[in-house]
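Changelog excerpt

This revision adds worked examples to the README so contributors can see how folded entries look when concatenated. The first example is reproduced verbatim below.
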Amino acid sequence: QLQLVESGGGLVQSGGSLRLSCLTSEFTLNQYGVGWFRQAPGKEREGVACMDSSGQKTKYANSVKGRFTISRDNAKKTVHLQMENLKPEDTAVYSCAAIMALPGAEPPMAPYEYDYWGQGTQVTVSS
């Protein structure tokens, strides 16, 4: 059973930056597609960024393109989300997720596609 633990959330002013990390329990992380999702109060969970198992393909929500960057370090079993120029509307609980995937498979952005989830970390952006 793959386990994921997020860290790096916090309170930041508008225009600031944060780097979220997701530490996994799996030494074969390169067999998994990974994604970051967020859920704001009263809203549905939405996909923010995802990456395929090889690290070659990425997708981003339109609202974060050019500001957020997903990356992975399979040797360290870690997935990161670098967030720049944060806005108050980025405030949410951010969760990482993973799905076992074939090499070259397109990374999905829909939450229901993912099998393994972390507990989430709060990101609050003040205006």
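The second example, added in the same revision:
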Amino acid sequence: QVQLLESGGGLVQAGGSLRLSCAASGSISSLNLMAWYRQAPGSQRELVAVIRSGGSTWYADSVKGRFTISRDRAKNTVYLQMNSLKPEDTAVYYCNIPPLWGQGTQVTVSS
């Protein structure tokens, strides 16, 4: 069974950067959409960024201009470059390549 393996989370000071990676452990037949979500304590999971099959992207207003989603289709991998991080970006980040979900990776931004 194909799994999504996330990496790159951690603790960073406000203003810093992190790059999250999400690699599929096997071949995925459909890569129409790849996305990142996040869930902060006590909050619902929210959509952060999307990259569609044609390469177009979408970002939540809260991260627009600071985060960049990209992919390597040959490697079945999606990335999330996060710059100018803020304490409110603290959350568990999940990648999603429907219908698969990653296990989540913790991002903590200290003030």
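Reviewer comment on example two: The mean pLDDT is 94. The two ends are 40 Å apart (CA to CA).
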